[in-house]
Protein: WecB/TagA/CpsF family glycosyltransferase
Amino acid sequence: MKDKVCILGVPFSKLTLEQTTSLLDEHIMDAQGGMFHLITANPEITLASQTDEQLREIIGSADLIVPDGIGIVMAARRQGEPIPERVTGYDLLLSLLAQGNERGWSFYFLGTDELTSVQAVEQITLRYPQVKIAGRHHGFFTLEEESDIITDIRQAKPEVLILAMGAPYSDKWLYKNKEELRGVKVVFGVGGSLDVISGKVKLAPAIWKKLNLEWAHRLLFSPVAKGQKSRWRRQSALPKFVFRTMIRK
Structure:
């Protein structure tokens, strides 16, 4: 398709952030629209999909996959099918919150730790007062608690469900519970975006973003949650991704 480019078997959208937001806006405002599952995929997730059969299945069933990483943009350029810009989970979340503030949409936030979740929602309420908070819950719940959380989301019927449990866990969790959450209009994972909104993690300075070095800023300055891989270990996927895409070309 002209609006997509396939990188290591993953069909990435060529839509800009503005176009992606407009697409989601149209879907939310369509009363007949079902659940729209968007995945924000970076080189690490793309590489993981090569050996993770379930992840490939999830990617294949998603409605849209956006390029959350400069490595994806560079790989597309090498293939001669350029992507205009990155569409990160953080930027897309802010864009949808701004749109939701105008439309009066409701959001449910699931993930990160309890304190960060509370502080992030407080900040969102201050910045986007017309956004309705349908609910929130931290991401360190047990299997016994999971059914109550799903029931809470179903009863809240948010237009947008935001998952902040890390990738690919967020997408795998949704895939497992997709049938029970059909009332949600749009759902996607945002990684550590709530940590940034809450103030727990500082956003990379403009110069780092301009040089496409946000990954380096996170590597050097962002804390890693208990139970997660170290950032140094995760970044080891980058040279592997570059090698794979160059060989494939």
